[in-house]
Design a protein that fits this description.
nine-stranded mixed β-sheet; 26% strand; FAD-binding oxidoreductase; eight-stranded mixed β-sheet; alpha/beta
């Protein structure tokens, strides 16, 4: 292929696009990654670094709807929805509500189990064969709760996980204090999930995956894709400098902006953005033994090589509304109350866009009308976790192989 054409063009240089590039290049495809910014500089940069292999329960669930009703009354709480954005997001919220119905919820659990199972297998294998397993940490995650009543709900979650072979270990008292010294006494119970994994720096891992793909021959093109024009032999990508790139196959993995390209192709996929906030403190801000999840408060604190990251929350406010960093500060204030030894000076605040679909499942599959265009987006909170699995499935589709798992739950047609 020449400089203006390729076998596979990947739109998006986040963890999903970079992983797809690696897998496709390993399979021998001529690959171009098109990214308007630095690779892994969006949601792949600011996440908590979790390989959440225990997260099989969809966000679109009765438990989240019950919590949401309480959280929405706190303007700086775990969930925020500016009133002015409500008319725009109302159809998405209606779909989320329908996805939480018992029959839909159970079906979505099955789909998450399949994808998460593949995710664990593929991620660990990819890290091993590329030598990037140096980024991997295996301390598990500690979920903490205030009182027996809140912990009872956690036991139900643990029971559901155990049905799929995911073990959780209840802890309290001295054992909880040993797992994280200095934790406020208000947290009386905890749940340790050993199968959870973390990486030392999510952006560094994503960048290294991209570099490995480039070392194998993938090309990185620093441009913005304005439109995707399908053709009989693939398609043409029109770029922001007025040039075009021809590709036999196209993978759209542009995160929260993906629907801007899928819509004109005949697939108006209901993608929304969960705006997440965090503060990354210096690495010595706390002796943090592992990631801690404050489930009832909607945030986590993670030990990374780049610092101690306090983040989470959900703000449903689209792509254009200015950041409200009071949300990051509110989580930091809570983290200080929950871990009094935490030093909160010298932090860097961040806001990013999690591309989310109302049923908590990504879109992985072919465009309805264009068999040489593929979608790989909408992973919500699980982009890092599901990245290698998504790359494996895209590689299967592009190569004309039977996908590793049934793709029916993730197909774009489910919304139409």
């Amino acid at each position: 292929m020449n400089a203006s054409s390729c076998d596979v063009a990947i739109v998006g240089g986040g963890i999903i696009g970079l992983s797809c590039a690696l897998y496709l290049r390993e399979a021998g495809h001529d690959v171009v990654i098109i990214e308007r910014n630095d690779p892994a500089s969006g949601a792949s940069r600011g996440n908590a670094g979790a390989l959440a292999f225990a997260e099989i329960l969809p966000l679109a669930s009765p438990r989240i709807l019950r919590k949401a009703a309480r959280w929405l009354f706190d303007p700086l709480g775990p969930l925020s929805l500016p009133p002015a954005y409500l008319p725009r997001i109302a159809p998405w919220l209606l779909r989320l509500w329908r996805a939480s119905w018992p029959s839909n919820y159970q079906a979505n659990i099955q789909a998450q189990v399949a994808l998460i199972g593949l995710a664990q297998e593929e991620m660990l294998a990819m890290l091993d064969r590329t030598g990037l397993d140096r980024h991997l940490h295996t301390e598990g995650v500690l979920e903490v709760y205030e009182g027996a009543e809140r912990f009872a709900a956690a036991r139900e979650t643990a029971r559901q996980r155990l049905a799929y072979g995911i073990e959780s270990q209840p802890v309290q008292g001295a054992e909880l204090a040993d797992l994280q010294p200095g934790l406020s006494s208000r947290f009386t119970h905890g749940m340790l999930v050993p199968s959870w994994r973390n990486v030392d720096d999510p952006q560094a891992l994503a960048v290294d995956i991209g570099l490995r793909a480039q070392a194998l021959g993938a090309r990185l093109l620093r441009r913005e894709v304005r439109t995707v024009e399908p053709a009989a032999d693939g398609g043409r990508l029109m770029l922001d400098d007025g040039t075009a790139l021809r590709a036999r196959r196209i993978v759209i993995a542009a995160g929260a902006w993906s629907h801007q390209l899928s819509g004109p192709l005949g697939d108006p996929i209901p993608l929304e953005t969960e705006r997440g906030y965090n503060t990354t403190l210096p690495p010595d801000a706390l002796d943090l033994r592992r990631q801690i999840t404050f489930s009832d408060h909607g945030f986590v604190i993670s030990p990374l090589t780049c610092g101690i990251r306090v983040g989470g929350a959900v703000e449903l406010a689209g792509l254009k509304r200015p950041p409200d960093y009071r949300r990051a500060q509110a989580m930091l204030d809570k983290a200080k109350a929950f871990l009094p030894a935490l030093r909160t000076e010298g932090g860097e605040q961040w806001m990013g866009f999690r591309p989310s679909l109302p049923d908590s499942l990504p879109v992985i599959g072919r465009a309805r009308r264009h068999p040489d265009i593929f979608y790989a987006f909408g992973h919500g909170h699980l982009g890092l976790t599901q990245s290698a699995a998504t790359a494996r499935l895209i590689r299967d589709l592009v190569g004309g192989q039977t996908p590793a798992i049934d793709l029916a739950p993730y197909r774009p047609e489910r919304f139409f």
